[in-house]
Design a protein that fits this description.
By secondary structure, this protein is an alpha/beta fold. The protein is 45% helix and 11% strand. It has helices at residues 2-7, 23-32, 47-58, 91-96, 99-115, 146-162, 193-209, 235-245, 260-263, 268-278, 290-305, 311-329, 339-345, 349-359, and strands at 12-14, 36-39, 67-70, 72-74, 77-78, 120-121, 166-172, 214-217, 251-256, 282-285.
Length: 362
C-alpha cells in the first residue's frame, strides 16, 4: 500500500492556470508524484515559453518522467497557434483520402510538438461521423465511413509514434453519433452491440493493431452495454469491451473529468475513484485547482484502503504507466529546442505546404 500511496499521482494528468507552473502544482507533484500535465490555450504565450514550461514540468518528475500532453488535432481543437503551423480540420484528410498526406501531416505535427517538449498528443479522433449534425465532433472526425477513419487514423498513429510522440485515439466506444455535447450534458447512444462492432469499434481495432500508446474514453451513456454508468466509469465498457474484447494493452485515459457530463453528476473525487475502478489507467483533471486535484487523489487512496478499489487495480495501472513511459520517455529524449532552432522548426515552409494541400479539401 505504501508504494500505491507514494505513486498514486501517476494516474493524474493535471491542468493549471498561467504561463508558468504554479506553486500549488509543484506541491501536488512533490506530494503525489503526478503522472502528467495538460497544456491548454491559457498556458500558451509563445514558443519559447511553451518549451520552458515543458522543461519545468519535466523537472517535477520523481522516479518516472512526466507526460507533457496537449490536444493538438487541427481545426478548432488546437492549443498551439501561429507561429506553430495551423492545421485544417481532420475532415480534410478524409476528403483527400490520401494515406501519404495523413502521414506527412503527422510527421510535421510531431516535429513541432517535439521542438517544444510535448510528448503525448490526444489525437487522432477515431469517432465515425455518422451524425453530420454532431455538435462536438463534426469536422474533427476524419470521415463518415468506419473503414476510412480506421485507415487514416492508423497512418497518423504509426507516423506520430515513429517520430517519438505518443498518440491517443479517442473517444471510445465512439462519440460520432451523438446529438449533444458532453462538455455540457451526457449524450445517449442507443446502438446495439452488433452495430458498435461493425462501425464504432472498427477504427479502434485498427488503432490497436497500429500499437497506439493510449485510448481515451467517451463521456457517453450506452444502455446496450451499461444502463447506469457513462462509458468512462463503466467497468463493463472500459475493461470488458476495450481491454478484454478488443485486447487493448496500452494506456486507457479518461476524457477531461471537468466536462459537465461527468462533473455535474459525480464530482471530480467520486468520478476519479469510479474511473480507476472501471479500468482506466489515467484521469484527466484539466480544470485548474490543485486543491480539488489533491482531494481526488486522497479519495482514491481512501477507496483503496477501504477495499472499494482493489489495490491490484491501481498496481496494474501504475505498471501500465511505467511500461508506456519506458517506450516513449526513456532517455535520451530530445530536449526542447531554443532560439533560432526553435523558430526555424515551427511553421516552416514544408509544413505550410502540407497544411495548404489539406486545405484544398475544406
Amino acid at each position: 500500500m505504501r508504494d500505491v500511496r507514494r505513486h498514486i499521482g501517476q494516474l493524474a494528468f493535471v491542468g493549471f492556470d498561467g504561463y508558468a507552473l504554479p506553486d500549488d502544482v509543484r506541491q501536488l507533484a512533490k506530494t503525489f508524484d503526478i503522472g502528467g500535465v495538460v497544456f491548454f490555450a491559457h498556458n500558451v504565450q509563445e514558443p519559447e515559453q511553451v518549451a520552458e514550461l515543458s522543461r519545468a514540468s519535466q523537472g517535477l518528475a520523481q522516479e518516472m518522467p512526466l507526460w507533457v500532453s496537449v490536444d493538438q488535432e487541427g481545426g478548432r481543437v488546437a492549443r498551439l497557434k501561429r507561429p506553430f503551423t495551423e492545421w485544417p480540420p481532420m475532415q480534410t484528410l478524409g476528403r483527400a483520402g490520401d494515406d501519404a498526406l495523413a502521414a506527412r501531416f503527422a510527421r510535421a505535427l510531431a516535429t513541432e510538438l517535439t521542438a517544444v517538449g510535448i510528448s503525448l498528443d490526444f489525437t487522432p479522433v477515431l469517432d465515425v461521423l455518422t451524425n453530420p449534425k454532431n455538435p462536438v465532433i463534426g469536422d474533427r472526425a476524419l470521415a463518415e465511413r468506419a473503414e476510412d477513419v480506421a485507415r487514416l487514423g492508423a497512418a497518423i498513429i504509426r507516423t506520430l509514434q515513429a517520430e517519438g510522440i505518443a498518440a491517443c485515439g479517442k473517444h471510445f466506444p465512439g462519440h460520432g453519433d451523438t446529438s449533444v455535447d458532453s462538455h455540457f450534458e451526457l449524450p445517449l447512444v442507443e446502438h446495439p452491440p452488433d452495430r458498435l462492432d461493425a462501425v464504432e469499434y472498427v477504427p479502434f481495432k485498427a488503432a490497436i493493431a497500429a500499437d497506439v500508446a493510449a485510448i481515451m474514453t467517451a463521456h457517453i451513456l450506452l444502455p446496450a452495454l451499461d444502463e447506469e454508468r457513462p462509458a468512462t466509469l463503466s467497468r463493463r465498457i472500459v475493461y470488458g469491451e476495450l481491454r478484454e474484447k478488443l485486447g487493448f494493452n496500452g494506456l486507457i485515459l479518461t476524457d477531461d473529468m471537468s466536462m459537465k457530463a461527468i462533473s455535474s453528476r459525480y464530482g471530480l473525487s467520486e468520478a476519479t475513484v469510479q474511473a480507476i475502478a472501471a479500468g482506466c489507467d489515467g484521469v484527466l483533471m484539466c480544470a485548474p485547482g490543485a486543491d480539488a486535484q489533491m482531494a481526488a487523489l486522497e479519495a482514491l487512496i481512501y477507496a483503496v484502503e477501504q477495499g472499494r478499489v482493489p489495490q491490484k487495480r491501481v498496481e496494474d495501472a501504475l505498471a501500465r504507466q511505467r511500461k508506456v513511459k519506458a517506450r516513449f520517455l526513456a532517455p535520451p529524449r530530445p530536449r526542447p529546442a531554443t532560439g533560432a532552432a526553435l523558430r526555424a522548426t515551427l511553421g516552416r515552409d514544408e509544413h505550410q505546404a502540407i497544411a495548404a494541400e489539406m486545405a484544398r479539401f475544406v
